[in-house]
Every structure is written in C-alpha cells, then in structure tokens.
Design goal:
mainly alpha, about 20% helix, about 70 residues
Length: about 70
Amino acid sequence: MEAQRTIEHVDSNGQLHIDLDQYRDMDVEVIIVPVKLDVHEGESKTELQMQSGFVKELLLDPAEDVWNEL
C-alpha cells in the first residue's frame, strides 16, 4: 500500500480530525511533524516541494537514479 502525505490544521483545542474510511479495520502509522508554510497566493505545490528540499533529496537519492541502469 502506498503512503499518503497531507498537511492538516490542528485547531485551537489541539485536536485534529482525519477521515480514514479507506483504512477501516486496519492498523496505520501516524507521524506528526510540525510544518511552517509561508504560502503566497499563486504559489504552486511544486514550488513548495522545492523549498522543502523534497526535489533535491529525490534527485540526489541514488536509489531513484534509474537512468544510470539503462
């Protein structure tokens, strides 16, 4: 099964609600990581991934470098 990643808001009571109907009757792992997003209007998901280092980490990961195996 593929992992899903989403950014959610914790309310002023410190609570978070996530519907997980597709995982009903299953064990799931929940990892909490604080995120500070300075999202400006018109900023794309790609730009956010670039800022977070996601793209650099993915491109520099030797396991992801399938082109060298051709």
